[in-house]
Fold this sequence. Notes:
- This protein is of the alpha+beta class.
- It has one domain (about 15-64).
- It is about 20% helix and about 30% strand.
- The chain contains 1 helix and 3 strands; from the N terminus they run βββα.
Amino acid sequence: MADPQDGHLARxxxxxxxxxxxxxxxxxxxxxxxxxxxxxxxxxxxxASVDDCIEHLYGELVRR
Length: 64
């Protein structure tokens, strides 16, 4: 996105998250699990379900 004033690219605020999702078929009937990390050095958070992960991520984005 170019700034019409000086022609430079505007940098929108943003975040980078690393999301890992996998199916844990060993626990009947099988569940999707997830981990989420902000950036590459952030704390890794573990979630028992993808829904829990999305709820947490939504809360993080609304809060900031």
